Amino acid sequence: MKLIFLLLLISTYSFSQITFEKGYFVNSNNEIKECFIKNYDWVNSPSKILYKDNKESEIEEIGIEEIKEFGINDKSKFIKRSITIDPVKNKTNELYPSKEYTTRNEIVLLKVIVEGKANLYKYENDTQLKYYYSISTDSIKPLIFYKYLKDNTLKTNEPYKKELYDNLKCNKFKIKDFLILRYQNNDLKNIFVDYNLCNNSKYIEYNLYDSKGKLNFTPKIGYQQNSIKATFDEVQYKESTSSPIFGLEIEYLLPFNKNKFSLILDPTFTTIKYNKSINQYVGYNDMYKIDIKDTFTYSSISIPIGIRYNFFLLNPNNKIYVNGGYSFELPIKNNFTSHYKSEALSLDSTYSYDLSSHGSLMIGTGVRIKNINAELKIFPKRELFYSISKYQNLNLQSICIAIGYTI
Fold first, then answer.
1. In whole angstroms, what is the distance from residue 383 CA to residue 360 CA?
2. Residue 8 belongs to what H/E stretch?
């Protein structure tokens, strides 16, 4: 726990080390201020920005109330506008109950995706993703798309297709281009770019996200400390054992927020073995001795699937991260055998139990320096054998330390 606390403490410090990038903002007095803006590679539309006059000056904050516009190089641009927002939460599984709804007006910072004669914008929060557009100096209008329930049937309302067909006029466009147009960033962006090209209009195409998605492959080798708790009949004990581990982590860095979030798939092979001898005394005054020898063998491939958050140390090549997820188990060889022997009782019996795992939660933390990776993972509880009787169960807890090299 001390190690985890130390890593989290360092990561909190490292988070502040992200460099500021050259940009500008326009304040409420229409004054343009060139500065260095902290680029979060925003997914949700921001409500404020952090900036410095120069790289050595103090960090300052300015909120949406005082901003009319801001941008970072040619990577991103946001403009403040009052827009119409519908209540449909199209980033969730929640369906709107009808085709009709009541809208509200809200002042937000819209992300500019394409800027030219025809402009495409995006607004996003935790539950909603909405696109807007304007032609030349016309007002900004919503592109409406959502799904709703009618008579317990899923319906789709997509008037954005007719809206764009009526307003993006170009000889090369056919009605089919709009009928198949999906309510997705790339589809919408491409048709706005094509419209500007068709009308000989200069345009700027801003990156939706500064970051790019990336796959990392990291072979690993390490050490696993196992704590086994067994209860069979009246015999209860805990046993600790260690085992080597071998794995291959597949990480996909998500293309937003400076690649701070990633999805991980981390299949790992290990074999756990131990033998334990126990003396049990039964009968009146415990006069009879039974020798019990337990043999445990468990080989499996653990497949943790989860999400990772990266904290950068001065630059994106050096980072500390935390993981969370769930580990599925693929047992390969698994058996628990108890041999009971007592000459006084003429006992010589063997009981064998096949094991199967129900998986486990997984938490972890690690550090990556360039291509070298070191990591700590904890699997709080894996149930390897369970019966309705509380007198027969076998649980496994593991702590893994591994190093890897990203190729």
1. 8
2. helix 2-15
Q: Tell me if 52 sits within 8 A of 19, measured CB to CB.
A: no
At 72, list the tokens: 């970072």
Who contacts 300 (Cβ-Cβ below 8 Å, separation ≥6)? Answer: 269, 270, 329, 330, 331, 332, 334, 357
pLDDT digits (tens, 9 = 90+) for 298-318: 888 989 999 999 887 766 678
C-beta separation of 21 from 71 below 8 A: no
> Is residue 405 within 8 Å of 248, Cβ to Cβ?
no
- With H, G, I as helix, E, B as strand and everything else as coil, classify residue 196: helix
d(CA 282, CA 289): 7
70 vs 40: CA distance, rounded Å: 13
Cα dihedral 179/183/184/186 (nearest 10): 40
d(CA 93, CA 32) in angstroms, rounded, equals 42
**Residue showing tokens 């597949």:** 250
CA distance 39 to 307: 22
Give the model's pLDDT for residue 340: 80
Domains defined along the chain, listed by start: 74-205 (no CATH), 214-405 (2.40.160)
Cβ atoms 390, 364 nearer than 8 A: no
Question: pLDDT per residue over 144-194, tens digit each?
Answer: 998 888 887 888 889 999 999 999 999 999 999 999 999 999 999 999 999
At 210, the pLDDT band (50, 70, 90 cuts) reads low
User: Is residue 391 within 8 Å of residue 232, measured between CB atoms?
Assistant: yes
Tokens 């589809």 -> residue: 187
Using CA atoms, how far apart are residues 378 and 368, in angstroms rounded to an integer?
Answer: 18
Amino acid, single-letter form, for residue 51: Y
H or E stretch including 179? helix 175-179
Tokens 């800027």 -> residue = 115
Q: Check residue 96 and report its DSSP letter.
A: B
